[in-house]
Design brief:
heterodimer; A: 313 residues; 14 helices; B: 334 residues; mainly alpha
Chain lengths: 313, 334
C-alpha cells in the first residue's frame, strides 16, 4: 500500500501468460492427485484401527445402528473394556478375564523379546563372520552358507509344524515358552542375518585392521569397535523380529494349549465364541495391537531401515 | 571330540536302560555337545577356530531345528499316524500319496495359491503408486509414512477380527453398509466363492502393501535426482520419464520385492484360518490353512506332513524357476 499506482491493475507488469496458467493448473492438479491419493490411503490404513477403538466403547444398539463418531452419534461407554476387566471401575476388582489377558500378554512379551534377543545375537555373529572371513565347510563356501541361512525364509512354517509338534511332544517342550522361543528365533533368523549382513558390509574393514594392529583380538575388535557402529542395524533387526514374533499365530496355535499360549491365540479363540459382543472383541483386539501401534509410531524409522536393507544393493 | 560323541552315544543307550520319561535329556546333550564343539574348535584351530565361532552357533541352531524335523518329517510322511488313535504310528507305504492324489481339496488349495500369488501384481502396482506419491515433495511425510506402515505392524489375527469379522460383517459392518448404500442388496462377503477370495486377498494386501511400498521407496530414493532432471531437459514429460528412466531403474528392486512378497504370500494362513476357515466350499483355502485344519480336526499327522512336504517341493521348484527368470530379467539392459 505504498502508492496508488501499485494497486491499480493496469500497472501490473507481469501478466500470467496462458502457458503459465496452464502449467500452474497442471501443477495444482498434480498436487491434488498426490495428496488425494495419500489421504485416501491413510484413511484406508487408519480406519480399521479407528473402527476397532470406537467399537470397544459402543453398546449393542450403537453397533447395530452403525454409529461411527463418539459423542456425536453415540455416547461412549466402558462396556468392552469392562468385560476385559480393564475399565476404570473394574480395575480394582478381581477379574478372571483380566488375569487371563495379562497372562497371555506376558507370554507374548516374554516369547517375542527372548526370541528376538536370541535371533539378533546369533544372527549378528553369523552375519559378521560371513561378511568378513571366508569359510570352508565340506563343499560349502561363504555364498553357500549364506544361502543356507537365507533359504530358511522360503521354508513354509507348515512344513516344520507337524514334525515339530511330534518332536516337541517327545522332548516335553509342547506348550512351553522355551519351545516357542526356539521356533520363533528360527523363523526370524534369516531376516536378521539379511539385515545385519547388509549393515556389516557397509562398515569399512580398515576399522578392524587398525584395531588388530593395536593388539585387540578378533572378538575384542568385534565387540568394542564394530558392534557400536552396527547398533542401528541391530535395533532395526530387533524391532522387526519383535513385531513378527509378537504377531505369530500359526505355531502358537499348534504348539500351545493352556500354559504358553500367546495373545494372538487368545484373540483367535475369542473370535468364534463371543458371537456378536463386538465391544469386548474390539477391546481385546485393540489391547493386542496397542503395543505394536506404539512401536510403529515411535520406532518407525528403524522398521523402515530394516525393511529397506537389501532392497538397494 | 570323539570322546564326547562316544559319551553321548553311551548316554543315548543308557536312556533305554534307565528309561527317562521323555527325550528332554537329548536336547540337553545336544546343547552340551554344541558347546563342546565350539570350544573344541577354538582349542584345535586357535585363531581360525575363533573365526568359526561366529557362524557355528547359528549354523548348529538352524540345523537342529530344521534338518532334524525335516528328516523326521520324511519318516512320518509315509506313515498312518493319527495322534488321537491308540495304535500309534504305522508305515503305510504310499497310501498317503494315493490319498493326496485323490484329494480334491488339496489341489483346490494349491490352485487357490496361484490366484493369491497373482494378486501380488495388483498389490505391486498399488505399492508403486503409493511409493511414488510418498517420494514426491509433500508435507507431513512423517505422518503418512507412519500411517502407511501401520497395517504391517498389526497382527493378522487381530486384523482378521477387525476387518474380516466386524467391518465385513454383512449386517452391521461399515463396509457392508457402504455396499448397501451403493445399491448392493445383499453384501455378504463370504458366501460367494470369488468375493470371499477377493476379500481375503484385500485383507492380505492391506497388511503387506506397506512392505512392498517401503522397499520400492528405498529404491526410488537411491535413484540419482540428476537422471530425472536429465530426462526432463531432453524433453520427456512425466509419463515418459517414468517409463523410460524410473521404471527400468527400479526393475531389480521391484523383482526383489515381488519375490520376497511371494515367499510371504505362500505362507498365508492366519487370516484364512480365522475368518473363513477355508470356506465357502474351500474357495479361500490356502495350503497352510488346509493342513492346519487337517491336523486340528482330524489330528492326522502323517497325511498332513506328506501334504506339507509336497508343498515344500513345489515351492522350492517354483522359487528356483522364478529366481532364475528374475536373474535373467533383472540383468541391467545397457
Amino acid at each position: 500500500m505504498t502508492g496508488p499506482s501499485m494497486t491499480t491493475p493496469d500497472t501490473q507488469i507481469f501478466h500470467d501468460s496462458p502457458i503459465d496458467s496452464a502449467y500452474r493448473a497442471r501443477w495444482w492438479a498434480g498436487r491434488v492427485a498426490v495428496y488425494g491419493l495419500l489421504i485416501l490411503w491413510a484413511v484406508i490404513c487408519l480406519f480399521p484401527v479407528y473402527w476397532t477403538l470406537t467399537t470397544s466403547f459402543k453398546m449393542a444398539p450403537d453397533v447395530m445402528k452403525g454409529h461411527m463418531v463418539p459423542w456425536v452419534d453415540y455416547s461412549p461407554a466402558w462396556l468392552g473394556w469392562r468385560s476385559l476387566g480393564l475399565s476404570p471401575d473394574t480395575l480394582g476388582d478381581e477379574s478372571t478375564v483380566r488375569a487371563e489377558f495379562l497372562k497371555r500378554f506376558s507370554n507374548s512379551a516374554v516369547v517375542s523379546l527372548a526370541s528376538s534377543v536370541l535371533a539378533v545375537v546369533l544372527g549378528s555373529l553369523a552375519a559378521y563372520g560371513l561378511s568378513r572371513f571366508s569359510y570352508k565347510f565340506a563343499w560349502m563356501r561363504n555364498a553357500d552358507i549364506s544361502f543356507f541361512f537365507l533359504s530358511q525364509l522360503i521354508l513354509p512354517p507348515v512344513v516344520l509344524a507337524l514334525p515339530m509338534l511330534v518332536l516337541y511332544k517327545e522332548l516335553a517342550l509342547l506348550d512351553t515358552r522355551i519351545g516357542l522361543i526356539l521356533l520363533y528365533t528360527l523363523s526370524v533368523l534369516p531376516i536378521v542375518i539379511w539385515i545385519m549382513r547388509d549393515q556389516f558390509s557397509s562398515i569399512p574393514t580398515e576399522l578392524e585392521e587398525a584395531a588388530l594392529v593395536d593388539g585387540l583380538s578378533i572378538w575384542g575388535a568385534f565387540l568394542t569397535i564394530i558392534l557400536p557402529i552396527a547398533l542401528p542395524g541391530m535395533v532395526a533387526a530387533f524391532i522387526l523380529s519383535l513385531v513378527l514374533t509378537w504377531n505369530e499365530y500359526f505355531f502358537a496355535a499348534l504348539l500351545t494349549s493352556t500354559h504358553a499360549n500367546t495373545l494372538p491365540v487368545m484373540v483367535a479363540s475369542q473370535t468364534g465364541s463371543q458371537g456378536i459382543s463386538w465391544w469386548s472383541m474390539a477391546a481385546l483386539s485393540w489391547a493386542a495391537i496397542l503395543p505394536l501401534i506404539v512401536i510403529g509410531v515411535v520406532l518407525e524409522r528403524y522398521i523402515i531401515k530394516g525393511m529397506a536393507a537389501g532392497a538397494v544393493k | 571330540m570323539i570322546l564326547i560323541a562316544a559319551g553321548q552315544l553311551a548316554q543315548v543307550l543308557g536312556w533305554y536302560a534307565f528309561g527317562f520319561e521323555n527325550w528332554r535329556p537329548t536336547l540337553y546333550a545336544y546343547v552340551l555337545w554344541a558347546i563342546c564343539l565350539c570350544w573344541g574348535q577354538v582349542l584345535q584351530h586357535g585363531e581360525h577356530g575363533k573365526r568359526t565361532l561366529f557362524v557355528l552357533p547359528a549354523a548348529l541352531f538352524v540345523i537342529s531345528l530344521t534338518v532334524f524335523p525335516l528328516l523326521f518329517g520324511l519318516i512320518i510322511a509315509f506313515s498312518d499316524w493319527n495322534l488321537s488313535s491308540p495304535t500309534g504310528r504305522q508305515f503305510n507305504d504310499l497310501d498317503n500319496v494315493w490319498q493326496m492324489w485323490a484329494d480334491p481339496f488339496y489341489w483346490n488349495a494349491m490352485l487357490n495359491m496361484v490366484w493369491y500369488v497373482l494378486a501380488i501384481l495388483v498389490e505391486y502396482a498399488i505399492a508403486f503408486g503409493l511409493a511414488l506419491a510418498l517420494n514426491a515433495e509433500i508435507r507431513a511425510r512423517k505422518f503418512f509414512r507412519v500411517a502407511f506402515l501401520l497395517p504391517l505392524m498389526l497382527s493378522p489375527v487381530a486384523v482378521s477380527w477387525m476387518i474380516g469379522k466386524s467391518m465385513l460383517e454383512p449386517r452391521f459392518g461399515p463396509i457392508a453398509r457402504l455396499g448397501r448404500l451403493l445399491g448392493w442388496d445383499d453384501p455378504s462377503f463370504f458366501g460367494n466363492p470369488w468375493i470371499a477370495k477377493a476379500a481375503i486377498m484385500v485383507m492380505d494386501a492391506w497388511t503387506f502393501i506397506p512392505f512392498m511400498m517401503i522397499m520400492i521407496l528405498a529404491g526410488l530414493q537411491a535413484i540419482p535426482k540428476e537422471l530425472n532432471e536429465a530426462a526432463k531437459v531432453d524433453g520427456a514429460n512425466g509419463w515418459r520419464a517414468f517409463w523410460e528412466v524410473t521404471f527400468p531403474m527400479m526393475l531389480p528392486v521391484s523383482i526383489t520385492a515381488i519375490l520376497i512378497r511371494i515367499i510371504f504370500k505362500l505362507k498365508l494362513a492366519d487370516i484364512v484360518i480365522n475368518v473363513t476357515s477355508g470356506g465357502p466350499g474351500g474357495a479361500t483355502d490356502t495350503v497352510t490353512s488346509f493342513i492346519f485344519r487337517e491336523y486340528r480336526d482330524r489330528s492326522n499327522v502323517g497325511y498332513g506332513t506328506l501334504l506339507a512336504m509336497v508343498y515344500l517341493v513345489v515351492i522350492v521348484i517354483v522359487m528356483t524357476v522364478l529366481m532364475k527368470l528374475a536373474d535373467r530379467f533383472a540383468r541391467p539392459r545397457t
